Structures are given as C-alpha cells and as structure tokens.
Amino acid sequence: MRDFNALLPLTAIVAVLTSYNCKVNGQTSQNINVFFINEIDNDPASKAVEVVETYLKKNAQYGLTLRIERIEANKTDAKDLLETICTKYAASIERKQPPHIVLDTTKSGVPSETVKSFTQALGLPTISASYGQEGDLRQWRDIDANKQKYLLQIMPPADIIPEVVRSIVRKMNITNAAILYDETFIMDHKYKSLLQNIQTRHVIVRITQGDRERTEEIEKLRNLDINNFFLLGSLRTIGPVLEAVKPAYFQRNFAWHVITQDEGEIASKRDNATLMFLKPVVYAQRRERLGQLRTTYNLNEPPQIMTVFYFDLALRAFLTVRDMIQANAWPKDMIYMGCDDYQGENTPIRNLDLKEYFIKVNEPTSYGQFELVSEQGKPFNGYSYVKFEMDIDMVEIRGGNSVNSKPIGRWTSGLDTPLMIKDETAINNLTADTVYRVYTVLQAPFIMRDPKAPKGYKGYCIDLMNEIAAIVHFDYTIQEVEDGKFGNMDENGHWNGIVKKLIDKQADIGLGSMSVMAEREIVIDYTVPYYDLVGITIMMQRPSAPSSLFKFLTVLETNVWLCILAAYFFTSFLMWIFDRWSPYSYQNNREKYKDDDEKREFNLKECLWFCMTSLTPQGGGEAPKNLSGRLVAATWWLFGFIIIASYTANLAAFLTVSRLDTPVESLDDLAKQYKILYAPLNGSSAMTYFERMANIEQMFYEIWKDLSLNDSLTPLERSKLAVWDYPVSDKYTKMWQAMQEAQLPANLEEAVARVRNSTSATGFAFLGDATDIRYLVMTNCDLQVVGEEFSRKPYAIAVQQGSHLKDQFNNAILTLLNKRQLEKLKEKWWKNDEIQAKCDKPEDQSDGISIENIGGVFIVIFVGIGMACITLLFEYWWYKYRKNPRIIDVAEAVPSGKRDKIPEGIILGRTEKHGNVKSNIVLRSRFNQYPSKTPKPRF
C-alpha cells in the first residue's frame, strides 16, 4: 500500500485529501471548490466574494474552506469566454478538483448566456445573480424539472429597483414616460416587461455622455410629447443630467422621478426643481451586521446594496453546499464531463436538490432578506429576489442645494408591489399635470374667442373638450393655427394648417369642425365622430321687400288715384246739377213725395256723401228720385265696383310679392344660372370637393375621348360609342370654373360680407359647411339657407398618428354619447344660444298681410276720428257763438190761447225770483223763416 501511494501523483494525493473533512484548530472544516465567473467591471461582486473568503477564514465556526477559481467574463466575445471557462474547467478535472458549485455574477447578454449554456450542458450546480425574469433567461428557459433543482437564479436589487417605475405609473396614472438609465442599471430586458399591460406610452433610453448630448436627448424626448421623466442611475450621474435639462421642463406640467441604488443625497447645480427621490434603506435589525462588515471587513464598494447582496448570496451558496455534504445529500460519485465530451444530449444526470437546501439556510442577511419561491409548481428562477425597502422623498432643489427633503412614503421591493404613501397631497403635487397642446381654427359656434373664459375660448368644441378632460384627466392649452386652415395638401405633398402641426409634433390635438377626409387619415388619426354627418349647403341673402304703413296706397299709381279723385268730384257735382234742375227730383217736387219714408234732398253736400259711401259695402243710401240722377248713380256704382275689385286683387298680389320663393332652390339651380356668383372658402373642404369633382369629370372625359377616337376599334365597336348626347357630365367643371372666376373668399367674414352686399344685379351665394351656415342664419336675420346638404362627412377630433389619445378619446366620446351629453351640447349652441337673433323666419310667416304693410288703414281711422272730433268742436262753437240765439220766458213767447204752438228759433226758459233766466229747452229751427207750405216752382 505504501508503494502504491508512492506512485500516486501529487495532484491525486491532494484530491484524495480534499475529499475528506480536515480539522483546523480542533474544528471540522469543509473544503469547497468554487468556480466564480464574473463580468469585467463588476467590482461589487468581486469585492463581495473576496470579503466572503476572508469572513469564512476569520469565522472558523462555519467550517468552510474555499478554493475559488476566478474567471472574468468578456462582455462581447462569447467564444473566447467559453474557451477560457472550458480550459480552467478541464484543468480542475485534471487536478481532481472539479467545482462543487458555480457562482455566476454575470449580469446579462453574452456573458450571462455563455455561462448558462456551459453550466446547463455539463450539469454543474450553479447559483446565478443574472438579471431578468423567467422569460429573459433564454438558456435556462426550458430546462427540465431535474435541472431546475440545481440551476438557480436570484434577481439582484439592481434588477428589482426598476420595478418601482411600474408602481409609480400605476399610482399616479401616468400616460407617458421617459426612462433614462446609466451603466449601474441594465434595462435591455425591461423594454417589453416593465410597463406591460399598462396603457402608458414610454421610451427607455441610455443616458448619454456630455451635457450637450444630454440636452439634445431630453429635447428629443420632449418632442415625443413626454412630460414624465424617470432617472435611474448613480448620484454622480443624476446631478449632471438634471443640470442639462432646460428650466422650462421643471414646470407644473412635468414630473421628475430620481431612482438610485446609492444611499446619499442628490447634489446638483439645478436652480429650481422639485422631484421625487427614491433610494434603498437598510432594515433596522440588520444595521449592526452591515456596520460590522463595513468596518471590520471593509465591505464598502458602492453601491452598497449590490455589494452586500453579492456577499449574502455567495455566503448562502457556500453554506448550502456545506449543509448538503454534511447531510450526505451531495453525490460522492458525481461525474464531471469535459467540454469536448459534450455531444448535445449527454448531460450528466444530477441527483441533488440544491434549491431545497438553499432555501433552508438560516444564515442572517446583511441588507434585506431573500424572498425565495418555495411553492410547488411556481418557477424559482425569475421570481426569487432580495426583499428590501426604498424611501420615497419629495426633494426641493433651490440654488443648487437640496433645501427641503420631505418623506412621503416607502416602497417594498417586488415584481408588482404598490407604493405605501403617507402623504397623498405631497405626491399629488409631484404629479405632472398632463397638458396637451391643442391647435384650432375659429369657427362659430364650435370655437369662439371669449376673454372671460378660462382658456380664452368658448363654443361647442370647448365644452366637448372639457367633458373629455374630466373623463381622461388632463389639461390643455389652446392656440389658433397661424394660417387658419384645417389642413390641405399641395401638389408637392406638403400639408398646411392643423394637419401640419400634428405631423410636425407641434400639436397633440386638432380641435374644431374638422371633417374626416381620406387623405388626412394617411398622415394623422381621427377619433370616433363627435358630430353627425355634415354636408355642404348654400347660403344666400334673404330677399326682403320694403314695408310701408301706406303700402296699400302704392297698389295704384298716383295718376290713377288722381283720376279716381277727379271722377269722384265730377260725378258728385254732376249728380247735384241733375237733382237741382230735374223737375222730378225731390227738392223740386216735394208734394209728390211727401208720403215717402225716405225724403233726401241731394244738395252738393249730400251728393259728395252719396258718392263716397257708394264705394263702401254699406252703400250710399237712398238714390235720387229723378231718372237722370239714378243713371248717374248707377254709372258711379259700376265704376266703383270695377275700381274696388281691381284694387282688392292687386293689393293681395302686391303684398305677397315679398314671400315669393328664391329662384335658386338647389345646387342644380345654382349651376344652371349665370346671374348669381358663387364660391366656397379658399382652402376649405368644400373647395376641395368641387375641385376634385371637376378633376374627376375631366378624367372621365379624357377616358371617353380616348375610347371614341381610338382608331383600333372596329366599326361595330365604334358604333356603340356613337351617341347624340354628351355622355359625361360637366356640371362640376363649369361650377369650378365659375367659382374661380368669382374669386374664392379668403375667410368666412369675407364670404358673409359678399353675401350681404349682394344686389339683384350682382348676387352672391356662399357654399360652406352646413353647421357654419345654420349658425350664421340663426344669428342673422338677413341670411338664409338654400337647398339640401350634399357631400356629407362627419366631424372628429384629430390626433397625431399612432397617438395613445385616440383610444382614450374614443372611450370618452362614446361615454358622452351614451349619456346624451353631445345632444345637450347641440341644444345649447344651436337652439338655446343667447346670441340667437330674434327675427321672423320664412317658415314661421303665415299667408296674412303684416301690420307693417296694412297699418296705414288704422292711421286713416285715427285721422278720421280726429277730424270728426275737430268738426264737433267747430260745430259747437259755430252754434253757440255765431248764431246768438234769443232767450225769452215761456209766457212771452206763447200768447194766451196758443200754448200748444211754439215758434221755432225760440229758447224756452223760466224767470226765477231774482230775474235770472235758466234755459231748459233749446229748439233749433232749420230755417230762419217759416217755409211756405207749397214750394215755389223754379220753372
């Protein structure tokens, strides 16, 4: 046996010896072979493993002796790294010192995948601190249940800390975010998972070097309409980044969140900024242990949380192997296969449960406790991490110093852990007010200026935007587009108006009576329509006939009225002459007609009265007795009947002229005439419609012309094209030509002015959106809508192409539609508008004659009554003061025996005691002398 041992190589003797426990200072010590694979520049991991080695040497009670094989991983060259690992691994096998465990502190990318491929293929028990969740561990993604027991991964704090961004976004309902990080964080695998299933538009960007580059990077992010910024990095990086930001980006509509692994305070030369600051804190029960590691073992490599994590992880991994060996759970005949022996499917089967013993280790941690998955069926890798806490402070930086730091909450690490906020008011003040830039075009009643309004504007769209903002929770600024256009594309494909603002990212929202058009939807997005289909219609000046109180007098011309008046006086005079000289008249033959009931003497006054009343429905009364007078009366009656009938008919026709319909009642009527000019607004959707229709007609004409002039057609085919009528309409071609000749108005004010300045000789009709024209007609009594709408399109809100606002606004508009809020807004601005003109609409007018045109008749009545009153006064004066009647006593006036007869012209009275006379009866005589009983003959 001694000879056999002498033949053994020295390495074999060492290997045999290391397979047994050795006693050091009277205690049993377990030798552990470790493959420590670390990335270049991962100093916290290197420092931690170094301290662990020293820590175990100074604390013999652990009974561990480490033999560590260190390998630094190249970050880019997988082949070189694998060759290095395989070379050292083969040497360890040759020395009979194969690794009990592989401690992998590579972070991600090429080094991490290379190490995982190596350990998975050769079946080496591994504790990994790589970044990523289950799906990110590509080489360990589909390992079987046996390998899941010894290939373990624990997520480091630097991989858990970014998850606080998800918690902040959810808590503060953030809709956009820019996440900037430095080299202390790895975010490549976070692009798809960090804000997954959250409707937040976000960008993850690596912080660039140089102040100028940082400023440009922030400016680019701002051009993407981002106003929530998350800075993940070390404190030495965060300060310069804040200094590179424009002061305007720290206003109320921006929010800044600084997240770090360091434990210090923010130092920045920023003049004025308020931000949220998150940093990790040590649990109170672990501060003593951490302080000892810092002072005794010099565990001070920053960031502290990562260095301590690597220390706790390495120590726990080594104690796991020790416990397994002591419990005989570690296979004594473990097979180690070289890299060259691996054929793809010949991985050695390991019968060991490293995960079970790793979870059972009860060694206290130095920063935060391990949160390890122990449930059956739930993956260990990608869900195990270190549980720690982060303080949330509100920090105010003034004049380059942190003047105030107020704790407002705490966050416990986890994959989906909510924020624990103790000051809701403070965190609400840190929330960026979501402020969108709205560009619009003035157009009543959709958008109108109002200095008293909160935004300086009022209208249907402003009310709509306020309703949407209450649902989606945002604020907005509104500005008029410089050229006053909604957006049209020129021949070079360049856009103007609101569409250009949206394309150039200068506007978030295009608001107004903006029609949905196919070419616009190529470059921008529209929400669901907020207004019904709106077409183009015609607006013209309302025809108005001048009203006059004495309009009934204008039915006949002045010379006709004079002739009628002359006929009246002539007939009256002629009737008086005939009655005076005819022997058969009443006044010349009183005895003959003394028994008649009607006794009428046709003097000049009676003749005038008879002819006047004969023209009325009441009639003239008793006609003359003589035949000649009656012929004159009959002639006058016939004349009066014809005049009255003609006057009545003409009066009715004359007073209804103002209610006649306009000669233009449709677009076809407008196209067929040449007297009235017409045009839409320059650059409007109506102009685009007519221009395109004219172009389409021209294209159809060219197609038909090419067919009809095609020499290759056979006589039969040519005969099928022979028609007498023109087969292609040129209606819109002529209309477009007429519009260009009429010159298109530049704005709505100019169009309305041209309509109002229209005359019968130079008429003008405006073609525009029906809603605009209806509002103008509603607020102006001199305008009217003509014809039906055509080319109907809906109105919608425009947003940038691909904007998240589209879905949010769609939901809000549909909500308002279901609540009938949109109908209420329509009633407010189209039916109940306070500036609605109070004027008579054509449809409200009846067929009757208005008082403005017939009121003169009432004036005639009042004038006649006034003249009658004046005449009454004159009669009273004439009788009382001009006639001077004599007053006598009854006894004087009537002789004795003749008391029954009283002379005419005597005023009867009685004598009072004092000689005063009081009249009681007045007898008026028609003649001054008694007339003779028999008339004196005139012949």
Automatic annotation (TrEMBL):
- Transmembrane regions: 559-578, 634-657, 854-878
Every copy of the Ionotropic glutamate receptor C-terminal domain together lies at 435-832
Q: How does it sit in the membrane?
A: Multi-pass membrane protein
Q: What CDD domains has UniProt attached to this entry? A: PBP2_iGluR_putative
SMART domains according to UniProt: Lig_chan-Glu_bd, PBPe
SUPFAM superfamilies assigned to the protein according to its UniProt record, in alphabetical order: Periplasmic binding protein-like II (SSF53850), Voltage-gated potassium channels (SSF81324)
Identify the residues that the record assigns to the Ionotropic glutamate receptor L-glutamate and glycine-binding domain, covering every copy: 445-504
- One Pfam family matching this protein: Lig_chan-Glu_bd
Q: By its UniProt entry, which PANTHER family does this protein fall under?
A: IONOTROPIC GLUTAMATE RECEPTOR (PTHR18966)
Membership in a protein family: Belongs to the glutamate-gated ion channel (TC 1.A.10.1) family.
Report the protein name in the record.
Answer: Ionotropic receptor 25a
